[in-house]
Structure formats: C-alpha cells, structure tokens
Design goal:
This protein is mainly alpha-helical. Helix content is about 85%, strand content about 0%. The chain has helices at about 5-15, 20-30, 30-50, 60-80, 90-120, 125-165. The longest helix is centred in the C-terminal third of the chain and has 39 residues, at about 125-165. The radius of gyration is 40 Å and the shape is rod-shaped.
Length: about 170
C-alpha cells in the first residue's frame, strides 16, 4: 500500500468517525510519514475537543428550544399568504370599477324601463308591463350584488396568483 493511499484512508476514516482499517494501521505503524499523519490527526482532534462548548443546563436548553420554536412559528406566519391582508389599492381599484358600473347599469335599466313603458304602455296591460320590469330589474340588481360581492374574492385570487408565480 502506498503512503498516499494510506493517508487518504486515514483521513477518510477520521472524518467519518470510523475505526482505522487494520491494513492502514499496520502501514502507519511501520511508516514514519503515515505515523506523522496519525499524530497530526490526533492533535487536531484534541484541539477540536478543547473548542467544544460546555453542555447547557436542562432549563437553558429547554428555553432555547422554546424560543427557536416561537421564532420558526413567527416566520411561518409571516410568510403564509393571507388573502385579505393588505388589499388596499387593489380593493380601491375594484371598488372604483364597480362604482362606475352602478350608474351605467342603473341608467340603462331606467332607460329601458322608461322606453319600455312609453313604447309598450299603450299596447301591453299594466300588470304585464310591471312583471316585465321585475324580470328585467331583478337580474340587474342581482348581477350588481354579485359584482360587489365578488370584488374581494377576485382581488384575493389575483394576489395569490401573483405571489405563487416564480
């Protein structure tokens, strides 16, 4: 066995925390260079042992673990997507669009209602005209209600998609 291969196996065994193979130990005891490598590794191990921190008391260890758990929990909460948090500008834009839609829809409904009653008034009896108005106005009102109710949901979904995209 060459000195280079023996020293490599010595270092690998020492780093892995394993026992030195018998063939390498025999070579190291006979070879001066490999023996020096073993002594150097032992000196490094002694220095590393002297640098270890003293063991913590049980109370201090428990407190450290609790604080690290709290910190991890706080990080997790801070990075979780909150769909309704911080929707200020997006909500304002969506509400502005909805507010613009309200007069347009209401004006359209009044125009159709007025034109319908003016044009159809002489031809259609009043109860039928009233029911036609109800059938027209109810979907408009329900549609506006759905629009206003869907604003926060649409903003939240848009923000979540923006956060999830790489």
């Amino acid at each position: 066995m060459s000195c280079e291969a023996a020293q490599e196996r010595l270092v690998d065994a020492w780093l892995a925390g394993e026992a030195t193979p018998a063939t390498v130990a025999e070579h190291a005891s006979a070879c001066e260079a490999c023996g020096a490598c073993v002594r150097e590794l032992l000196a490094i191990a002694e220095r590393l042992d002297s640098l270890r921190s003293p063991p913590l008391r049980a109370a201090a260890l428990t407190r450290c673990k609790e604080e690290s758990r709290r910190a991890l929990r706080a990080l997790r909460v801070a990075h979780e997507p909150a769909p309704l948090r911080g929707m200020g500008r997006d909500m304002l834009r969506a509400a502005a669009v909805a507010l613009l839609a309200l007069p347009v829809a209401a004006g359209h409904a009044l125009l159709v209602g007025y034109a319908g009653s003016t044009l159809l008034g002489p031809l259609v009896p009043a109860p039928v005209l009233a029911w036609l108005g109800v059938f027209y106005f109810v979907p408009v009102v329900v549609g506006l209600g759905v629009l206003y109710g869907a604003i926060p949901i649409a903003v939240a979904v848009g923000r979540r998609r923006a956060e999830e995209e790489p």
